[in-house]
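Narrative of activities, Objective 1.

The group set out to show that a structural description can be obtained from nothing but a protein's sequence at a throughput compatible with the screening campaign. Below is one input-output pair from the validation batch, recorded exactly as produced.
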Amino acid sequence: MGILPNNTGRAITTKQAGDAAEDEALLYLQQQGLRLITRNYRTPGRGGGEIDLIMRAPDGTLVFVEVRRRNSSLHGSAAASVGRVKQRRVVLAAQHYLLHLRSLPPCRFDVIEVTPEGCHWLPAAFDAT
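Output recorded for this entry:
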């Protein structure tokens, strides 16, 4: 676990920074009308996937959200860091989550980028193929 400086002069862990980014993303999405279903959904077993936020859109769509935090765009956007391997893990975790539902709602995969300037939401950033 890495240690990062913050604006208070105290060091925070990368886990704390990630949790804070998820908190910010969650608040932003709730302000856009989405409702939280669950947070940090993990599949069992080694090598499984994780979904940062599972939300319900006002139209009933189940939204699987990957949250990415970036302090600067020096190394590219946070959204660009969600490569094929990460997408595949999120899709596998979503499939596992959907196994527990009685009926399948419409679904999509979003990415939300959290930067010092705020949140940038990319609805339907990738698909399950």
